[in-house]
Structure formats: structure tokens, C-alpha cells
Amino acid sequence: MEDEILFSMTGIEKSFGPVHVLKKAQLEVRKGEIHAFMGENGAGKSTLMNILAGLLEKDDGHIVFEGKEIEKMTPELATELGIGFVHQELNLAEDVSVAENIFIGRLPYTNKFLGIVNFKKLYEDTAYWLNMVGSKVNPTDLVGELSTANKQLIEIAKALSLNAKVIIFDEPTTSLSDKDVEVLFIIIRRLKEKGFSSIYISHRMKEIFELGERITIMRDGEYIATDYVKNLTEDQIISMLVGREIKDLYPKQPTEIGAPYLQVKNLTDGLGKVKDISFEARRGEVLGFAGLVGSGRTEAMRLLFGADRAKSGEITIDNRNVTIKSPVDAIKNGIGLLTEDRKHQGLLAGLSIKDNITITNLDEFLLDEKHLHEIAAKYVKEVNIKVSNIENPVSSLSGGNQQKVVLAKWLNTDNQIYIFDEPTKGIDVGAKSEIYSIINQLALQGKTILIVSSEIPELLGICDRIHVFHEGKINGEIAVSDYRNNKDEAQELIMKYATAN
Amino acid sequence: MLKKRKTLLTGISIATMLLLGACGNESSTDADMSKTLYFVPIVDTGAYWNPMKKGAEDAAEDLGYTLVTKTSPSAEPSKKEKHIGFIKEATAKDVAGIAVAPIEKKSFVDPIVAAMDKDIPVITFDADLENEADRTAYVGTDNVSAGKELGKQAAEEMKAKGITSGSIAVVCVDVAQPTMIDREEGIKAGFEEVYGADASNFKFLATIQDNDQPSESKKQLEGYISANKDLVTVFSLGSEGPNVGVMSAIESQGKSGEILHYGFDYTDTWLKGIEDGRITAIVDQDAYQIGYQVIENLVKAIDGEEIDKTIPIDVKYVKAADLKAYGEEKSKIQTGSTDDAETKDSETKDSE
Amino acid sequence: MENEIKKIEKKKIDLKSLFMNYSVYLVLIVLVVYFSIANSDFLTSYNIENFLQQIPPVGILTVAYAMILICGYVDLSIGYVGMAAGMMGLFASNMGLPAPVVILISLAVGATLGTMNALLIKKFDLPSFILTLGTSYVIKGMLGFFTDEQFIGSEQEWFNKLAKTPIGTEMFKSNALIFFVIIAIAVFIMKKTRLGKYTYAVGSNQEAARLSGINTDLHIVKIFIIEGMLAAIAGLLIVSNLNGGASKDANGLDLFAMAAAIMGGTSFSGGIGTIGGAVAGIMTLQVFKNGLTLMGINSFLQDTVTGLVIILSIIIDYLKRRASRNS
């Protein structure tokens, strides 16, 4: 049973106009297996999955599902065959109940002609599936009011209720807390026991190693390899993903840490999320902020940037007291913020790549398009975005490249203080190290960097000091150099500060 | 590159239009135009304007001219500008004559005078310009005297009924329209003439306008009836909207037969209100005659004959009881004149 | 050989994207050609004169509407703002004030009403659709109250000449000139200045724009001020053209302006569209109505067909955007 093949895709070709996105791509998934699927942003895994789900048409190649060749895949056919998709961006109707979301389009009717819904059956069926995935929500709850983790469970329940034989999980843990991730893993394992297959797409090595049985890797639209996870090391996987060896994930060069530059005293938001924060940062220093999801880090940074109004607090820059009431003030004082949600808060979707990058630093009145083009091109190169024409709309880029555009936008300022909120969230391994070196470069130039991150290894890799948030206050601080040889101890200490009182 | 292409395209579009127009080719030969008349009413639908157009068409046919009717719907945006455009078009084409109902006195002066300067006779109808000299003639109901007739008759009847005081409502389509202004003026003048000093015991409420939406006038009048227990009489200045709206309001407020209702212009709509007394009496303009006379006089002017500067068409005062018979006569007359190609003289139309 | 294939491929794509991007212009050219052939009156000097006489007010409103839409807002009160400003100018002129003062007063009224709209929208955080629907009634009521909705005549010759002075030829008058100058200025602002770029940014994603350091509140007020002043010019032209004005003279024009702007590629969601496209849109609509009138088509049928043209253009726009999203 374990070795029986559920489906296989071979020789898949796909082009969008002149862009050849998939070249002889392949993937084979067995029944009841948890199959990890990795590839950098732009490697083609989303495209391949979309073809599997019938959302895109392949140009060439074969799809064989349970021994039968599928000539033309459509979304309806995919659902019928049992291909379920839990997207990274959840596909639920917020204003409608859990039950109606799961059974959307196939509500049970007592009288179909008059449209009278059999709510009793609907809720019963819903409860069954919710139970299957171990969710404790009520069938009648409104989806909009649920946490991201619960919404995800509902998507899984929905896929199962459609008799999915294989569920594709696309970056499922991006917005989940550690506890939720554990719950997710339990469910995926339970699915395996019941004979369902899972395709697990993620950038997070830790998860791949914890959960994955076999792994398939793609790069630049091509199939690279499939193997059992236990046969591979992290470095091997990384070099297959990136095509080259990454010597050091965290290229931290020692920087000169100068005089105190930024001082924050008693910053409070008056809403209970940020309660009396004080810290100090120096020139050339990379200061990290760790803490659980919801501990107030993002909120504190937004106050510092003027995105939200602080109730009280003092901010001093270069020994001058400054008032920051809006992002305009912040930028005037040399502070930039790379927001956590880059897509919705950082990108101007309808505008070109060039416009997005130059928007932070436009000439006073009359625009010199040629000059702006040069500047944008310069930063595109610096953050290594692969694009043919920067006049194209930014929406034409892949997710990872879009993130880089937002980064480029902030590099295109004369700021002295850079705040990065989850800078590598949703970014693949190869690009991550590029970003780390950019951060390092900035520090070398004497800038002050503040980084909020939920990946402690990342913080330990690039920061000089780390403050730990706990329920709106700074609970502890560690100097990274003290724990150079004792990363585990540092991690434990940080967790302790983040959770205890 | 793309930007240049776009500006080029826009430029070409505009330039093309201007260039080809500059080689201004007049579309038709002179011969056609000398037998063409332009007829520009405010609208051409409804119980008032439609017979008028028919009258004009019949006259043109009888006299051997081509009638070109140009108009626009009631609520047309930029209506005034459009109709001014029609006059200019006629002028540029050098037609034989123009008949136009000015939507507004002041803005229509220039294009009409421009036509006159080109020796194209222009006759106004339904509403007139301020200065007589600006047009060849005016054919139409003297709205002031029509209103006066209605006001007088209404006052006489009210006096006979022993009504000495109360509120009076006035309802119309558009308070700014010159015809409405004149009618209201006339009604009040006629009213005061009959009542004399006692007229001050009556209060004319603020005029209701409904943009030809009966639901609007109905709503507003119902409000008036509720708020003014002493409302005795309503004057509808036309057209269909107020007619229907007023009768509807009277009915819904249960005042059928109690509140007196005097209206303007015959329409079959009145027939519904005769039995329960929702319409008391009307003055009727002879819309068909106006249309016919406009063209008849226009042709006379073209032929160089002398015509009066103002050619009034009489109104008839018709009481409710006589409305049905009157209406039948009217429709007979109209169908009669189309059958009878010989009848050109307006006098013969009274009897049949 | 490969290069040649690539060139041909590129050309094919360009033609397709050319059609997609400039469909409005193509429709316009097709209509002009069609009417020229179908009706001998279409290209005559008097018809063109009429056309150029009637398009400037609604055309200027279209330009103003396009800017507001690109910024992510609508303004349903634009017609009445224009008439209010125009009639204030009329009163000032009748009082004997000199021309520059009259124009300044009119512009000031437009700017003030625009500011009022912007502040209310920002302060109450209400969708601009509802808010400006409300302000449109307020302005309409006030204007009607003060003028009794009567037509107020102009008593100054120079005022009447504002919109009707021929420039070079009878066909092309001062109001058309003003219209074209405004188009040029608007295109310049939107394409070549920071103000224009910020407008696209704010319309595309107001929050992201704010977090990028744009003073979005101030910017929105600026755009509404510009829009109010443009509406004022449109109003002045209407009143000057008719030798006077009544409060309802702009009725219906604002909806045409909005439809035209959307036909030309702007969208309710903001951040996209061009002034050129919007102008092509209003020209298409006006050419269409003009052509139909000349051909003697019943005016109610004209309304039906006009509506169909609007719907068709929006469908094309929708398909266009869907195609670009899928690629």
C-alpha cells in the first residue's frame, strides 16, 4: 500500500508567452505518503501544482492519476478525482458560517426547487468533518471571526469532505504560531494513517525534516531530484535548491558599533498592546526583537514609525528629541519600516516595478523619468530581482520578487534607521541569505537596524543584541556574542523570556 | 514610445475631425434646403406636443415643404445647448424657415438673431423671446391671458359657491419654464380681478414642481392637503405629471369633489376624474392649431407676406361635464384634417 | 533566424496589447469613420462647430472625474459643485466685478466645495460614494433655494464671450481651447509630476502609500481642490455659453463624465487609468450621440444605444483586466 503510486506527472511543459516556466517537470506521489515539495520562489512549483489542480493547462506532458491518464484536467475533474488544495492565501468567505463554507455549492436541500436548506444535515455533516480534523469550532461560527489557524483547519476539512485523496498544502505555516503548527502536523500525520496523501510545500527546513517522508526538489522550472528526507542533509537540500553551495547562511561580518543613535523611552500605545517599551540602539548595530506572535513587537515598531499614534513616550535620535506622528515624520527623521505584510501594506499593485521602488524618494515636483529609471535599475540589481523590464507592473512578479521590491524601495532612501518586520517571511532559502548580506551591508555603513522576527536562529545569526517581548513589555535581553558557541542555550533563554513572567 | 503613440492617436483623431470639417462641405444642394423647414419643439411626445407636431407636419405637407423635426427627451442633459445647436445647424444649412420653442428666453436670443440676420425667418411658439424684434413672429397661446381666463372662471365659480377664504395650491412641471411663469401670473391676475379686495383672504401656497413625475406632485400635494385643512382649490399648469399627480392626491386624501381642480390642456387622463369630481374645469390650448399655424405663418413669411408679430391661439374653457364630448370632437378634428387634404383654413375646423 | 522569430513574436504581442490598451481610441476612430460615411451632415463645419461647442463642459468634468477615480474616490456632487461655482461667478459678474475677480471667485468656490468634500470623507471615514451623494443634495438644495431654480441671465457682454469667442475659425471657440489646454495640463500633471505619481499610488493602495511616506490626507485634499476648480471652470463655461444659468443645467453630465472616464480605463478601485483614455471615452460618447441625432434616430432609442455602448466598453475593460491578470 505504501509503495502504490497515487499519481504521477511527467515531462510537464508550460510557457507563458515567451517565458518557459516548466521544463520536463515531474512529480510522483504515493498513496498515504507525506511528500515534501521544495523549490525557490520562481522555481515553478506553484505552476506545477496549479496544473495538477486544473487551474492551468499544461502545454505538454502526462498526468496519470490512479493508473488512468488524464488528457485534460479541469478544476471540477481535479475535485472529482480527489485533489484538494489548501492555498497559502485562504479561500474562504468571511461573512458566512463554517458549514456554509465547507459545503459551498453543494448545500443539502429539503426542497431544492424552493431553495430550502436542510440545516440540520448541513451542521451534522460539518461537525463530522470538523471532528475529523480535530477542530473545536462550531459549524455555525462565522469564518471571519476565526483565527488563521482555525481557518486553515476548515480549508482542510473542506478538502477532505470533497473526498480528497491527496491534499496540497501550500506554505501552510506562514501565519501560524508554533502550537498551531504542531496541531497541523498531528492532523497531517493522522491523514496519512487514514491513507490520505499530502504534498507539503514549505521553505522551512525544520518542518521538512520533521514531517516529510520523501522530498522532491525543483529549480528554475526543472525537476532536480526526489529522495527520502532521511537520506539528505540540510546543506545538500539547500545546494540542490539554489544550485550552488551556500557556505554560510548567515554571512555576518563584524561591524563597528558606534555611539548610541536611537533611544526609545516609555513608548506606550494606550491600547494595551505596547506597554512602556524602552530600549537603545547604536550606529552600525543590528538589534533583534524576539517574542511570541502577538507579543506587541509589530505594534511597537509601528508606533516608532508613526504608522499608529503613540499615547506616550519619548523618542530621541542622535540626541535630539523628535515627535513622530505619521510616517511622513518618521521618514523625515530617517526611519523606514519594512512592514510584515509586504503584499498589502508595502506594494502599490497597479504601479510599475520602477514606480514602486522610487515612490519613497521622488523629486520635488517635476519627475525625471530617466533618472528614476536608473535609480530603480540600480536597486533592482542590488537586491537581485530577475526581471526583464522594470516598467512592467509589479503584479507580474512572483511573490518573492515582490518582497524584494519592497526591500529595494526602502533602500532607496537616506534613512539612518531601518526597521525590518519579519524580513524573510515567505522568502526562499537562496534569497534569504541575500537579504542577510544586505542587512549586514547596511550595518557596515553605520546604519541602525531593528529586526523583528519569529525565527530565533535567524536572529541569533544576524543580530548583535536581542530584546525579548512578552505581552507588550520587554522581558529580557541577550547579547549574541555571549552565546556564540551555545546557540541552543541562547534559544532556550529567549523562549523563557518570551513565555514566562 | 507607447506614450508618444497614444498622444499621436489622440492628436490624429481630433485633427482628422477638424481637418475634414474645415473642408466644410455643405451636405445638401440649395434646391433641397429652400423647401426645408426646421421644427424644434421642447419635446415631441405627450398630449400637448404630439398634436402640435402633427399640426406642423400636416401644414408642411399641405404647403409642399419638407419638415425636419429636431428635439430631445425631457430630462436630456445639456438640453438647451443641444437645441441651440439645432438652430445653428438650420442656419448653417440655410433652410427656408425655422420654428422653435425656446427652452429659455435669454440663451436662445443669439442663435435666433443669427438666423434672422441670414434672412431666415424664425417663428417662436409655445414660449416667446423678451424682445419682439428678435424674431419674425410668435404663435401660441398667450399664456398670461389663458391663465387669466382660468383664474377668472375659477374665481366666479368659487364665489358662486360662497367660498370666501382658504389656501390655493399651484402645481406644474418646471417652475422656471416661461410658459408656467406666465400661466401662474395670469391665474393670479384673473383671480384677483374677480374677487377684488377679498382676494387677500386667500393664500397661494408655494408652487409645486414635479419634473413630470406624477409620484412627486402627488406626494407634495398630499402633504399640502394634510397641512392645510382650508385647501379649497388646486391649479394644474400642465402637463401630464401634475395632471395625474393632483388627481391622485385628491383621491387618496378623500377630497374628491370637495377640492376644486382647474387644469390646463385637454388629455384623455381627465376623463378618469370626471365622475368623482376630481377635475372641475380646464382651459385647453389648441395644440394642433398652434403647430399648424406656426408652419402656415412661417411659409407666409418666406413668401414675403406680412404677418402679425404675435399670433395668439385661443383657449377654450371646458367644464368637466362637457369634457368627454369635447375630447371626442378634438380627435375627430385631427383625423378629419388628415383625411381632408383640401382643408387649409383654420376657421373650418370648429364644425364637423 | 531565431532573432527574426523573436521579432515577429514581439510584434504579435505588441499588436494584441496595443488593441487591449487602446481599445477606446480604436472605437473612437471607427465611430468617426462610420458616421462620416453614413451621414453627410457629420463632417460639415456646422456639425463640428456644434460638437466642439457642446463637449467642453462635460469634457472638463470627465478630466476632473478621471483624476478623482485614479485617486480611488468618486464625487457625485461634481455637477452641482460646478454649477454653484459657475453661478457664483455669474452673480459676481452681474454685480460688475472685473473679470479676473469673477474667475477667481468661481475657482475659489470650486476649491472650497472640493475641500469640504475631502475633509468630510476623511473625517467620517465614509465611502465617498455615499458622502458625495449627500453633499450633492446639500449643494443642489442650497443653490435651488437661493435662485428659486430660475434661470438667471448674464448682464455682462464679456462674460458671455468667455465661452464663445472664436479662435481663428468659427468652428473652434474659446471653450474648446480651454478644454484642450486643460487636457494638456492634466496629462502633464498625471504623467510628469510627483503629484500625479502620488495620485496613482494613493489610488492603488492608500495604506501602502501612507506607509511609504506620502501624506495621503493632504494629497487627497489637493486632488479634490483641483477637481473642484476644474468643475468650476466647467460651470463657468456652461453659464457663459447660455448667457446665464439655472441650477440644474449640469444635470446628467456628471454621470456621463464618470462613465466616460471608466470607458477610458479608469476604475472604481483606483490606481489605474489615464486622462487620455478618459478624454477618448467622452469623445466617443459625444460622437456617438451626435451621430445618432444627425441620423434622426428617435431620442429614446438614442438613450438605449448610448447605454449599450457604455456597457460594452465596460465589458471590454473587464475582459482586458482579466486577461492581464491571467498572464
Question: How is this fold's topology laid out?
Answer:
The complex is a heterotrimer of chains A (501), B (352) and C (327).
Chain A: E1 5-16, E2 19-30, E3 34-39, H1 45-52, E4 60-65, E5 68-69, H2 75-81, E6 83-86, H3 98-102, E7 109-111, E8 116-117, H4 119-132, H5 148-161, E9 166-170, H6 178-193, E10 197-201, H7 205-211, E11 214-219, E12 222-228, H8 234-242, E13 260-268, E14 277-282, E15 286-291, H9 297-305, E16 312-317, E17 320-322, H10 327-332, E18 335-338, H11 342-346, H12 353-358, H13 369-382, H14 399-411, E19 417-421, H15 429-444, E20 448-452, H16 456-462, E21 465-470, E22 473-479, H17 487-499
Parallel strand pairs in A: 3-10, 3-11, 6-9, 9-10, 15-20, 15-21, 18-19, 19-20
Antiparallel strand pairs in A: 1-2, 1-4, 4-5, 7-8, 11-12, 13-14, 13-16, 16-17, 21-22
Helix pairs in contact in A: 4-5, 13-14
Chain B: H1 2-22, H2 30-33, E1 36-40, H3 46-63, E2 66-69, H4 79-93, E3 97-100, H5 109-117, E4 122-125, E5 137-140, H6 143-160, E6 166-172, H7 178-195, E7 202-204, E8 208-209, H8 214-227, E9 231-236, H9 240-252, E10 260-264, H10 271-274, E11 281-285, H11 287-302, E12 310-312, E13 315-319, H12 320-339
Parallel strand pairs in B: 1-2, 1-3, 3-4, 4-5, 5-12, 6-7, 6-8, 6-9, 9-10, 10-11
Antiparallel strand pairs in B: 11-13
Helix pairs in contact in B: 3-11, 4-5, 6-7, 8-9
Chain C: H1 2-38, H2 45-70, H3 78-94, H4 99-124, H5 128-147, E1 152-153, H6 157-164, E2 166-167, E3 169-173, H7 174-192, H8 194-204, H9 206-211, H10 216-241, E4 244-245, H11 253-263, H12 275-294, H13 299-326
Antiparallel strand pairs in C: 1-4, 2-3
Main location (chain A): membrane
Subcellular location (chain A): Cell membrane
Keywords (chain A): ATP-binding, Cell membrane, Membrane, Nucleotide-binding, Repeat, Sugar transport, Translocase, Transport
